């Protein structure tokens, strides 16, 4: 009774080891990603088709850095893909990445969207925008004004501790300093229609459900909802809203990125660089825009019509590195004002 | 005890004490059954390794964390956690005890079916029930639409009900899927232990209701304590449902400290502090009933004669038992089925789903077998050697369940990763080959995580099963010349089959629902239903997730039905 599971386990283990050693020889590469599999799959499929290189993946929502660090020099990871500049910076800080000198990447990715030491490269952008009820009579909003009393009981937003929000609050700190940010967060908190929580799409759903008038959320969800890709129900949520591109009073719209870095001990470094370069090609940037409704990073690459309908995106000039630096303090401010309570 | 007298040469008294200790330890280990002690120690050590790894992490220090926590986080988070645990603890105990008593003490229509149907909510993970009810009760959902239609309102802007996203909502929803943790052991206790004494009480003319309060409940106290504490550990583990429902528990603070502030040291510190708190609470409960002994029911276990209910009471009993099944399982399952059907028509069935269902099933089955075997070893060793030391080993082996799964998984990751690196270096130096990641790459690390996390369930259930077998049985068997192994096989295993089956069910279902460790530790290209579900939910494509969620619930029903059969054969 005791021995059977161990025999089976050993069998399972040995086949997996065989599979792993096999992987090292063929034209393959291993991708660790904290982006959802459904989002990267179309890109990887296109890459495999054009290069013949198979991509093995593991989707790690949290703990990407911890996993790669624990595996150390034995790690099979070649390319590390993550959302949010802070997460990418973490990988660099923990010494898990290596620089990549590539003319293709340098030409395709603007300087402010990659690591100064070429450790990571942004692959797509998303803006933190306002979803507003269709009948709302304004078409321009500043982030600062979200704390105004006129919005009392009318705003929906996800947890203040979510990276999408801490990044926005960090950007606010870069513009206005910590004290003013705390005051602003207190005002924003007072304006919430319901406890901070749920996902970005719930903002649209709750606007249709009459819970709030505006919601703070990411741009690409609108494409996913309004295109009907998420089914009829989500289409109804998407159709209930219009999108306003908010700006800072002295700046533009807050954007965050998704990006990737080559792992320090990458066994298939060349293939990893090849995939990285592919991801900024016209073909891949088009997939980012059309399948995921993100803003491409490559200058001149087209955005999806749904996203284009929001108007011209004026990217806030605050450097991503500033936002990364402020992140911890922003998260602490969220606790201080009891934003999520 | 002939050898090792060479050790006694010491002169000074501390040395003599030490050698006496070594001697007595050696004599214990050379007893027949030394295998059980060693194996049990090894298993406990395996569970302790990730906890120690976290301790090492925590010692890295986290500047200013506690002053920040104490001022801005703990007051609220502690209150919320206490409220959530008290609420869910009471609710699971009340539901679990009530329905367990009804189905064992009375006979009414549908009772036989309910006996196992009451377990079905186990198959619904907390994060799924939260999501389902959030959607059903949303102003746009079917329930409020119906209410509006009845009251004659057109738009949710004109009329809506209060939001389910609240502490009350969280307590109700968690209670609905966690009560089987109490129902299962308490029913087993009522069926076997209580039966004989209840019969006695009956002959003495005590009413059924008084019997519950005076006889059955006090007898079932260990089972209630084990069941409720298992349910509460699940509450401490939960991140998904709390996030959905807006409860800012301590577990969420741990998670935030780690993820948002990249402060793993700080997160480990909070998690270890929580662990201490849990251990203290459990010890307190054990201390409070230290004087009671619960073993010894000398007759063969049999169920008590059920009192047939008549008239309205029959239907009342049926409704009371049906309510948790309907709310905790039938409604969510129906909802998931319709959502899955919509998705199926829209996009068909993804081919990966079958592979993932198989992965989930195979992995959970293997892990369950290992967890049961280890649980049996630890619990049996503690029975063979009832000294304090072995009790402590047994407690240590159960520590993994008292930590949020996310954090325990990080401890495993640190330990397994370290071992993998060492194996890799050694193999490269000595053999010149690169074995890759032996533990993480093969999925062994994942099995290890399930073992460390769920061992408490099997140790606890097996222990509860074994205490019901009088020690005189052991002595008789040994007098008749049966060794330890043979006594286990021929006496203890057959008599605790129901307890083992119950442990197997709980562990299997828990492995299958497990998300955080699976996400963090699985090898490349390996998905389970839970990770698939999470990937879709994280992207917000809930319809696709509905199919995976339904599959989890369906795979989870299998062992429930299996267990019901074992239980019925025994009853």
From TrEMBL, chain A:
Transmembrane feature ranges: none
Binding site for Fe cation: 220-221
Coiled coil stretches, renumbered: none
Keywords linked to the UniProt accession: Iron, Metal-binding, Signal
Lineage, highest ranks first: Bacteria, Pseudomonadati, Pseudomonadota, Alphaproteobacteria, Rhodobacterales
Name recorded for this polypeptide: Iron uptake protein A2
GO MF assignments: metal ion binding
Gene: futA2
Similarity section: Belongs to the bacterial solute-binding protein 1 family.
Pfam family, one: SBP_bac_6
Recorded GO CC terms: outer membrane-bounded periplasmic space
Organism of this sequence: Paracoccus haematequi
Keyword Signal in annotation: yes
Signal peptide annotation: 1-26
InterPro entries tied to this protein: Ferric-bd
Statement: the UniProt record of this protein carries the keyword Metal-binding: yes
From TrEMBL, chain B:
Domain ABC transmembrane type-1: 78-283, 357-563
Subcellular location: Cell inner membrane; Cell membrane
GO biological process: transmembrane transport
SUPFAM superfamilies from the UniProt entry: MetI-like
Keywords of this entry: Cell inner membrane, Cell membrane, Membrane, Transmembrane, Transmembrane helix, Transport
Origin superkingdom: Bacteria
First-listed, main subcellular location of the protein, grouped into a coarse class: membrane
InterPro entries: MetI-like, MetI-like_sf
Membrane topology per record: Multi-pass membrane protein
Any Pfam family: BPD_transp_1
Listed transmembrane segments: 35-58, 78-104, 116-134, 164-184, 212-233, 264-284, 312-337, 357-380, 401-419, 431-451, 545-564
GO cellular component: plasma membrane
Similarity comment text for this entry: Belongs to the binding-protein-dependent transport system permease family.
Protein name per Swiss-Prot or TrEMBL: 2-aminoethylphosphonate transport system permease protein PhnU
Lineage: Bacteria, Pseudomonadati, Pseudomonadota, Alphaproteobacteria, Rhodobacterales
GN (gene name): phnU
């Amino acid at each position: 009774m005791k021995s059977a599971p161990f025999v089976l386990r050993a069998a399972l283990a040995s086949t997996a080891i065989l599979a792993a050693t096999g992987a090292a020889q063929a034209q393959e590469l291993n991708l660790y990603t904290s982006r959802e599999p459904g989002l990267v799959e179309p890109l990887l499929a296109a890459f495999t088709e054009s290069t013949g290189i198979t991509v093995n993946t593991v989707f790690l929502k949290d703990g990407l850095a911890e996993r790669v660090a624990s595996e150390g020099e034995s790690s099979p990871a070649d390319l590390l893909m993550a959302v949010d500049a802070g997460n990418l910076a973490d990988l660099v800080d923990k010494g898990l990445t290596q620089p990549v000198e590539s003319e293709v990447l340098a030409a395709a990715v603007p300087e402010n969207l990659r690591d100064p030491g070429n450790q990571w490269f942004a692959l797509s952008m998303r803006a933190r925008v306002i979803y507003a009820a269709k009948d709302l009579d304004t078409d321009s909003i500043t982030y600062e004004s979200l704390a105004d009393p006129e919005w009392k009981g009318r705003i929906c937003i996800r947890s203040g501790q979510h990276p999408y929000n801490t990044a926005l609050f960090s950007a606010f700190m870069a513009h206005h300093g910590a004290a003013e940010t705390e005051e602003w967060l207190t005002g924003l908190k007072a304006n919430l229609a319901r406890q901070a929580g749920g996902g970005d799409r719930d903002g649209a759903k709750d606007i249709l459900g009459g819970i709030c008038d505006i919601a703070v959320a990411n741009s690409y969800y609108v494409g996913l909802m309004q295109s009907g890709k998420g089914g009829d129900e989500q289409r109804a949520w998407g159709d209930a809203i219009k999108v306003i591109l908010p700006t800072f009073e002295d700046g533009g719209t807050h954007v965050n990125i998704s990006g990737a870095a080559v792992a320090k001990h990458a066994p298939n470094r060349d293939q990893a660089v090849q995939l990285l370069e592919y991801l900024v090609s016209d073909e891949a940037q088009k997939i980012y825009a059309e399948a995921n409704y993100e803003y491409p990073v490559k200058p001149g690459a087209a955005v999806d019509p749904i996203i284009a309908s929001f108007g011209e995106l004026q990217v806030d000039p605050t450097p991503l590195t500033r936002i990364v630096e402020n992140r911890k303090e922003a998260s602490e401010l969220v606790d201080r004002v009891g934003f999520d309570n | 005890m002939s050898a090792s007298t060479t050790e006694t040469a010491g002169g000074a008294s501390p040395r003599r004490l030490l050698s006496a200790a070594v001697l007595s330890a050696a004599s214990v280990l050379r007893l027949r059954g030394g295998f059980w002690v060693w194996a049990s120690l090894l298993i406990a050590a395996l569970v302790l390794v990730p906890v120690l790894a976290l301790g090492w992490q925590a010692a890295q220090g986290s500047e200013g964390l506690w002053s920040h926590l104490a001022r801005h986080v703990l007051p609220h988070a502690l209150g919320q956690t206490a409220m959530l645990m008290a609420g869910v603890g009471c609710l699971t105990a009340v539901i679990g005890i009530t329905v367990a008593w009804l189905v064992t003490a009375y006979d009414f229509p549908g009772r036989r079916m309910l006996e196992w149907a009451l377990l079905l909510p186990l198959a619904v993970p907390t994060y799924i029930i939260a999501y389902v009810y959030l959607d059903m009760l949303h102003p746009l959902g079917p329930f409020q639409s119906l209410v509006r239609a009845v009251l004659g309102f057109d738009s949710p802007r004109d009329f809506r009900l209060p939001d389910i996203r609240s502490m009350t909502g969280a307590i109700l929803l968690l209670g609905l899927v966690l009560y089987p943790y109490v129902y299962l052991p308490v029913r087993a206790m009522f069926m076997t232990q209580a039966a004989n004494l209840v019969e006695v009480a009956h002959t003495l003319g005590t009413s059924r209701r008084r019997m519950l309060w005076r006889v059955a409940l006090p007898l079932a106290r260990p089972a209630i304590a084990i069941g409720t504490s298992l349910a509460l550990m699940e509450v401490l583990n939960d991140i998904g449902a709390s996030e959905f429902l807006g409860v800012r528990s301590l577990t969420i603070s741990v998670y935030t400290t780690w993820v948002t502030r990249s402060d793993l040291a700080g997160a480990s510190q909070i998690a270890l502090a929580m662990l201490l708190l849990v251990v203290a609470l459990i010890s307190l409960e054990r201390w409070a009933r230290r004087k009671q002994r619960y073993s010894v029911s000398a007759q063969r276990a049999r169920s008590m004669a059920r009192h047939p209910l008549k008239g309205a009471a029959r239907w009342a009993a049926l409704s009371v038992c049906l309510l948790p099944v309907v709310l905790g399982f039938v409604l969510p399952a129906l909802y998931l089925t319709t959502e899955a059907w919509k998705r199926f028509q829209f996009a068909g069935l993804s081919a990966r789903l079958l592979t993932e269902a198989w992965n989930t099933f195979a992995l959970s089955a293997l892990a369950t077998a290992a967890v049961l075997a280890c649980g049996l070893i630890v619990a049996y060793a503690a029975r063979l050697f009832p000294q304090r030391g072995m009790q402590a080993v047994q407690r240590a082996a159960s520590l993994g369940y008292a930590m949020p799964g996310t954090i325990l998984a990080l401890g495993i990751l640190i330990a397994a990763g370290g071992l993998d690196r060492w194996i890799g270096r050694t193999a490269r130096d000595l053999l010149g080959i690169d074995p890759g990641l032996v533990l993480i790459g093969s999925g062994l690390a994942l099995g290890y995580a399930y073992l460390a996390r769920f061992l408490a369930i099997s140790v606890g259930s097996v222990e509860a099963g074994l205490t019901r077998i009088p020690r005189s049985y052991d002595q008789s068997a040994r007098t008749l010349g049966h060794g330890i192994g043979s006594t286990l096989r021929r006496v203890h295993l057959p008599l605790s089959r129901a307890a083992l089956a119950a442990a197997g069910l709980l562990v299997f279902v828990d492995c299958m629902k497990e998300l955080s460790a699976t996400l963090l530790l699985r090898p490349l290209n390996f998905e389970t239903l839970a990770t698939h579900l999470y990937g879709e939910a994280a992207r917000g494509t809930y319809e696709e997730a509905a199919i995976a969620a339904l599959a989890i619930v369906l795979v989870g029903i299998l062992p429930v039905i299996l267990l019901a059969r074992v239980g019925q054969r025994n009853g």
